[in-house]
Design goal:
Blueprint lengths: L1 E12 L7 E12 L3 E5 L6 H8 L7 E6 L2 E2 L6 H7 E4 L12 H11 L4 H14 L15 H13 L5 E5 L7 H16 L3 E5 L3 H4 L4 E6 L2 E6 L1 H6 L1 H7 L5 H11 L11 H13 L3
Parallel strand pairs: 3-8, 3-9, 6-7, 7-8
Antiparallel strand pairs: 1-2, 1-4, 4-5, 9-10
Bound molecules: adenosine-5'-diphosphate (ADP) and magnesium ion.
Magnesium ion binds next to α1.
Length: 281
């Protein structure tokens, strides 16, 4: 079932100014409930603008965005839409306002007037899901980078969203924190949450079921990561690197090795090389 629908979404910044910037040029995109969608594209291609349109932080200049059937342009839907689609940004620190982990997670739903027993239940669940259950009294500023992103996610989960949009949340993280954050998003998706994962890390894209690439404010690709990374010309046009395993595989294919599928990560590369080795002669 469609959770988010963009219809001919146009977004122009500074409409009143002398030099308006057209960031999105007519995007048609449907995201179904429960999907894990990676969003990629070079800097300035419109990823963050699109992300902000998905929960009504930005309203279309023309076209429509519907969240669970509700038009983001209408003021009366704003709160419902913001709690249906939660946003996590690149520096979660900037989002924190409270002095303990538990208070931070309770802050959003408390403000929405969620009744006490349900509030406690939601906060406990969010802390448990994000592995923060043992750290309720810690100052958010004292968490590791991975811990901060988990807290930002927990704070959103406490609003009982159906979708999380993570806008380059892992961009400044070390590899361990990146893996931790991606694994958490994948687990939440398995539990039914829709995930929109904006990134420029191609190894993360390889883990998504679907990739949407933006190209100068237009949809440049919408499909599986395998089909995307199989097409080197398209990746070059979109300004995307290939995941290292796919680079190695393309190099070997260029030299005449035949592989049955294009591997996108180290484990898949080992498997296809092993199969090619067994089938040699
Ligand atoms: P990305 O996240 O892919 O790097 P953005 O959505 O941030 O792309 O930006 C798309 C285009 O819109 C760029 O040309 C950028 O300079 C412009 N832009 C983004 N935010 C603003 C803003 N607040 N005001 C004016 N122009 C903006
Ligand atoms: Mg961005």
């Amino acid at each position: 079932m469609a959770l988010i629908v963009c219809e001919q979404l146009h977004l122009t910044y500074g409409l009143e100014s002398d030099v308006p910037i057209e960031a999105l040029h007519g995007i048609d995109l449907t995201i179904d409930e429960g999907e894990f969608v990676a969003v990629v594209g070079r800097n300035g291609s419109g990823k963050s603008t699109l992300a902000r349109c998905l929960n009504g932080l930005l309203r279309p200049t023309s076209g429509r965005v519907l969240v669970n059937g509700l038009d983001t342009a209408l003021r009366q839907h704003r709160l419902t839409i913001r709690s249906t689609v939660g946003m996590v940004f690149q520096n979660p620190d900037n989002q924190f306002v409270m002095s303990t982990v538990r208070e931070e997670v309770a802050f959003g739903p408390e403000n929405l007037g969620v009744p006490r027993p349900e509030l406690i239940e939601r906060v406990d669940r969010a802390l448990r899901l994000t592995g923060l259950a043992d750290l309720p009294d810690v100052d958010p500023q004292h968490l590791s980078a991975g811990g901060k992103s988990r807290l930002a996610i927990a704070a959103m989960l406490a609003l009982a969203p159906r979708c999380l949009v993570l806008d380059e949340t892992t961009a400044l993280m070390d590899p361990l924190a990146r893996r931790e954050t991606l694994a958490l998003a994948q687990e939440l998706c398995r539990q039914g949450l829709t995930i929109v994962w904006v990134t420029h890390h191609m190894d993360e894209v390889a883990e998504a079921a679907r990739v949407v690439a933006l190209d100068h404010g237009l949809l440049g690709y919408d499909g599986t990561p395998h089909a995307l990374f199989a097409d080197r010309a398209l990746c070059a046009k979109l300004g995307l690197d290939l995941p290292p395993a796919a680079q190695v595989a393309h190099g070997l294919i260029d030299r005449g090795l035949s592989l049955d599928t294009l591997p996108l990560n180290a484990a898949e590369l080992v498997d296809s090389l092993a199969r090619a080795w067994e089938g040699r002669s």
